[in-house]
Design brief:
By secondary structure, this protein is an alpha/beta fold. 36% of the residues lie in helices and 20% in strands. It is built from 14 helices and 16 strands. Strands 6-7-9-8-12-16-13-14 form an eight-stranded mixed β-sheet, with helices on both faces. The protein has a five-stranded mixed β-sheet with strand order 2-3-1-4-5. A three-stranded mixed β-sheet has the order 10-11-15. α3 packs across α4 and α9 crosses α14. The model has no long low-confidence stretch (mean pLDDT 95).
Length: 457
């Protein structure tokens, strides 16, 4: 009978066993020593020691032990710190716990046979281990919440149920949830949302998540695109498997996860999450290519392509951020396929304030939500020209789609604020590796939350 306890070691006493571990594939080896199940982690060279490497190793171990139905795993915190001595010890402990819980994550609510309980991680040795592990777990739970939202099916998560799920999640917390329904959207002149959602059987909604950990801090608006399913509308997408288009609300999920993390951490920040939720469907009532939307600001936009809908609803979110007089505005969206061609599936792109882009990159390098600064090329702005409205929602050139989308959004950015735009289209889902599974990544929750704390110092 297999032991229900596994010990995680960062070196083996036996030279022969150490040799075996070094020759094994992967970052660790699973062995039995005197009837004790041991996970022996390979040595990581100092120059390759990164916090996300810690998370990836922990996540892979957690998934392996969960598959083996191991109930408990024990690691000595002092040994963990020593194994990654090039890094801050407390950060290593937090990262290991965070990666552990994310590696054990599974979205199996629609399967007839569900995964069993994940192996429980226990730190031994240091007295600080408990609180550090709890911090890691809190971070992981926020990302898992974002993953759950992204992974859910469109018949369960739609523009009418999304607000209810957030109301339930934040009930009894320090987060004040305000939902603007269709009638209120008409009153508020959120014409981008109303136009994009015309083909859906569900009503659109605009959700505000207010968290005031410290009202004296600058107001940071986190604006998230929440398209619960994107068929492309009348500009219908091609016939490939479109099931991942339920994840086109990844930006909204990131905002919700970030607010959850900030609230659970009692962060001293002043944040509002602004989520626009719609469903982009073809229907006899759908918005058509050539239609023109007039925004509350008076700006008019010709819809050149209904599959470039995310920017149309984000515009309403940016306008609302201005009404709330936000000092910082960060919008995040699964916006363009072009960003995936530019950066691949491991990194998001960020546009906007150059100094803030560099700061966000440093934050992502630490917390695992990697992001790369992208240019706003002024010469491309004129490609948004329209002969019938102030400008179009698509460029008249066939290249640099992520840049021209960002240039479109910039036209709605409130004056006197610092702005960033994160395009996460390439990183919304993943293949099984480390603390990632074959599902949504939950990208952005940590990035936005950590940025809010950084900007509030």
């Amino acid at each position: 009978m297999m032991s229900k306890l596994a010990k995680i070691l960062f070196a083996a006493d036996d030279p022969e066993l150490n040799s075996f571990v070094k020759q094994s594939s992967g970052d660790f080896a699973v062995v039995f020593v005197e009837k004790e199940l041991q996970i022996i982690v390979k040595e990581v060279e100092k120059k390759k020691q990164k916090l996300d490497k810690v998370r990836m190793i922990a996540g892979a171990i957690a998934r392996e032990l969960t598959k083996c139905k191991i109930e408990r795993a024990e690691a000595d915190e002092a040994e963990l710190r020593e194994a990654f001595e090039a890094l801050d010890g407390d950060s290593v402990a937090v990262a290991f716990a965070e990666g552990w819980h994310l590696g054990a994550y599974a979205f199996d609510r629609y399967k007839s046979k569900r995964n069993g309980a994940s192996a429980n991680l226990e730190f031994s040795g240091e007295t600080s281990a408990g609180s550090l592990a709890e911090t890691g777990k809190t971070r992981a739970e926020a990302v898992a919440f974002s993953r759950d939202l992204m992974n859910d099916i469109p018949s369960e998560l739609n523009p009418e149920t999304f607000p209810k799920k957030l109301q339930e999640e934040f009930a009894g917390t320090k987060v004040d949830t305000i939902v603007h329904d269709k009638a209120k959207l008409e009153e508020m002149e959120m014409n981008g949302l109303l136009a994009v959602n015309r083909g859906s059987k569900y009503d659109p909604a605009f959700i505000e998540l207010h968290y005031e950990g410290d009202a004296s801090k600058p107001l940071i608006a986190l604006v998230g695109k929440g398209v619960t399913f994107d068929t492309g509308g009348i500009s219908l997408k091609n016939a490939r498997d479109l099931s991942d288009m339920r994840m086109d609300m990844g930006g909204a999920a990131a905002v919700a996860g970030a607010v959850k993390l900030l609230a659970e951490s009692n962060a001293n920040v002043n944040v509002v999450g602004l989520i626009q939720t719609v469903e982009n469907m073809p229907d006899r009532h759908s918005i058509l290519p050539g239609d023109i939307i007039t925004y509350k600001t008076g700006q008019t936009v010709q819809v050149g392509n209904t599959d470039a809908e995310g920017r149309l609803i984000l515009a309403d979110g940016l306008i609302r951020a201005g009404e709330l007089e936000a000092d910082y505005v960060v919008d995040i969206a699964t916006l363009t396929g072009a960003i995936m061609f530019a950066l691949g599936p491991k990194m998001g792109g960020v546009f906007g304030d150059e100094e803030l882009m560099a700061e966000l990159k440093r934050i992502g390098d630490e917390n695992g939500d990697f992001v790369w600064p992208m240019p706003l090329i002024e010469e491309y702005d004129k490609t948004l020209k329209s002969d019938y409205a102030d400008f179009s929602n698509i460029s008249n050139q066939g290249t640099a789609g992520s840049i021209t989308a960002a240039l479109f959004l910039r036209r709605f950015v409130p004056e006197n604020c610092k702005w960033l735009h994160v395009d996460m289209a390439g990183v919304m889902d993943s293949k099984e590796s480390g603390y990632y599974g074959n599902s949504a990544t939950g990208y952005g929750a940590r990035l936005l939350a950590d940025f809010a704390v950084h900007a509030s110092k």
